[in-house]
Amino acid sequence: MTLTPPAPRPAAGPVAPSGVPDLDGRTALVTGAAGGIGRACVLRLAAAGAKVRAADRDAEGLAELAEQAAAGSRPGAVETLTLDLTDLDAAERAAEGTDILVNNAGLQLVRPIEDFPPEVFATVLRVMLEAPFRLIRGALPHMYGQGWGRIVNISSVHGLRASAYKSAYVSAKHGLEGLSKTAALEGAARGVTSNCISPAYVRTPLVERQIADQAAAHGIEPERVVTEIMLADSAVKRLVEPEEVAELTAYLCSPQASFITGASLSMDGGWTAH
Asked: Which residues partner with 78 through β-bridges?
């Protein structure tokens, strides 16, 4: 009996030993970079060797980030960019020439649908869904041209599950999940991966600002919000740390993650295991 030899495996390039991903020579763009998850991602990618463009509308926060980065092991690795993502044309231009795109910027308002300001709903979708589309659109020509790219979309457990009083945020994150999967399907043959990271509540200024809104919406005291609302469905009873999200982001940019695309990786402490 004649056996047909197996088809050769497609070349994926050398894979370095596990550990710190080697991103030397890569250029990354991180939005919402002035604090929280964005800041942690900037510092982590820079530590891995990337040159990082840190984009945010918070110029003061960017200046603090630049000082922190300059004091680290790779001074000059972080370039700050004051950018308002409601300017979609500017967002698309900012992404040109990037090898790694981390869509992280977000905003939140907690209100019942009947009280939710339509203009805020539109702004949330513009910043958290339209802007990522334009950023991806701006980044893809360069990624396709070199046959390599990494898109990491910081989604949320609310991209997989809904919560009351968060109509705009939940809508935007569900849309981001779909956009990420579409980019994964289109980019796979050209060496570009696209994934979502979907954490539960992360210890960030955005979450801290939610506590008063959540207390008002649910009619409870602020100190009960974390235990009774935010961590109610989590098996692990603590907030996610920004550095944990940044570590997974760096991994998704590594050679070891080249087969992971179109995925939504939960960091929810067991929330979606119910």
From this structure: 52
Task: Select from 149, 151, 256 the least CA-distant residue to 194.
Answer: 151
47-48-49 Cα angle (round to 5): 90
Cβ neighbours of 6 (radius 10 Å): 6
**pLDDT in the model for residue 274:** 85
Q: With contact defined as beta carbons under 8 Å apart, do 184 and 262 qualify?
A: yes
- And the tokens for 109? 């308002």
Is 223 exposed, middle or buried, given 0-12, 13-18 or 19+ CB atoms closer than 10 A?
Answer: exposed
Cite the beta strand spans of 127-263 per DSSP E.
149-154, 192-199
CB of 46 within 8 A of CB of 78?
yes
- pTM (2 d.p.): 0.88
pLDDT at 20: 60
- Nearest-angstrom CA–CA distance, 221 and 228: 10
Query: Secondary structure of 253-268 in the HEC alphabet?
Result: CCHHHCCCCCCEEEEC
What is the Cα–Cα distance from 219 to 221, expressed in whole angstroms?
7
Per-run averaged pLDDT (10 residues), the chain, 274 residues: 42 47 94 97 96 98 95 88 98 98 96 97 98 98 98 97 95 98 98 97 80 80 82 88 97 96 96 88
Tokens encoding 38: 């964005």
User: Do 176 and 133 touch, CB atoms closer than 8 A?
Assistant: no
Three-class DSSP category at 272:
helix
Which residue in the list 144, 165, 169, 251 is annotated as catalytic?
169
Q: Active-site residue 144, yes or no? A: no
